[in-house]
Each structure stands twice: as C-alpha cells, then as structure tokens.
Specification:
By secondary structure, the chain is mainly beta. The protein has strands at residues 21-28, 34-37, 45-54, 60-67, 80-82, 85-87, 94-98, 113-117, 123-132. It is globular.
C-alpha cells in the first residue's frame, strides 16, 4: 500500500451503539423549548459533537443545550450539555463541542436533546452528532 495504512473496519466505541447520526435545525430563536434530536424508543443519545451558530450580525443569545424536555437547562442540572453565550457583531460566531467517541454526554433512555434561547427573533443553526446506545 505504499506506506499508507488503510482502515480495515470502523465501529462504534461502545458495543451495541448505532452508526453515527446527525440532526440539524435552522430556526428562529425562541424562549420555548425545541427538540433537536429524538432517539429511537428504548435508546439513549450519546453526543459526539454539537455546533451552534447565529444567522445575523445583531444577535446576543444565551443558548441552552440539554437532555430532556424540561422548561430550561436549570430544570435538571444533571442533563446540561452546554450553555454558551453567542454574541455576533460583524463576524460569524459559533460554538463547537467535540467529545471522544463513546465518552460524550449521554441522556437517559428516551431523552431528547433540547435547545432553548434567552431571546427571540434571530436565526440560529443547531447541529448535533451522536450515536444511540
């Protein structure tokens, strides 16, 4: 193979985990809870990564990314994933979180991944990359 090492197989870090999945939302910011990803019934979501970004240059948002359907990230601190503050003035602002495969935050069985904002009216993009276990 001329010095190049090829991958023979690629598998989940956790036995029984699904293939990598991704869910994406492009939405107007809202103080209401919105679901980003829903696991297959009886499964848990383990995050591999997430991406949060703003769509305009006048936004100033606190973002709440968490497991479950609580009213906000403070409903159950054990379900929190990320709570960044995004402020965009004249350049794109984004927050990226990456975790080793099999070592990221994991929700309870049937817990969705939810997002909520402290303000309304701006365009926001949310991407979550995960496996089901």
């Amino acid at each position: 193979m001329s010095g190049i090492i090829g991958l023979i197989s690629v598998s989940a870090a956790t036995v029984g985990a699904s293939e990598v999945k991704m869910d994406r939302l492009a939405l107007a910011a809202s103080t209401s809870v919105q679901t980003v990803a829903t696991p297959t019934s009886g499964k848990r979501i383990r995050l591999i990564g997430y991406f949060l970004s703003l769509g305009s240059n006048s936004a100033n948002l606190a973002v709440e990314l968490y497991f479950g359907t609580g009213a906000n990230i403070g409903s159950d601190d054990t379900k929190a994933i990320s709570n960044p503050h995004l402020e965009q003035t004249d350049a794109s602002e984004a927050v990226v979180g990456n975790f080793p495969d099999g070592a990221g935050p994991i929700g309870a069985v049937d817990d969705v991944v939810s997002v909520r904002f402290n303000d309304t009216g701006d365009n926001v993009r949310v991407v979550v990359i995960y496996r089901e276990e």
